Amino acid sequence: MPDSSTKKDWLHEAILRIEADFCRSVDTHLIPLPIPTYSAHGIDLYLKDESTHPTGSLKHRLARSLFLYALCNNWLCKGKTVIEASSGSTAISEAYFASLIGLPFIAVMPKTTSSEKIERVEFYGGRCHLVDSSIEMYKSAQELAIQTGGHYMDQFTYAERATDWRGNNNIAQSIYTQMSLERSPIPKWIVMGAGTGGTCATIGRYIRYQRHESQICVADPEGSVFLDYFETHNPNLSSNGSRIEGIGRPRPEASFIPSLIDRMIRVNDVDSIAAMRILSNILGRKVGPSTGTNFIAMLKLANELKQKNIRGSILSLLCDSGDRYLNTYHDENWANEQFGDCSSATKTLNQLMQAN
Ligand SMILES: *Cc1c(COP(=O)(O)O)cnc(C)c1O
Question: Is the pTM higher than 0.85?
Answer without folding.
Answer: yes
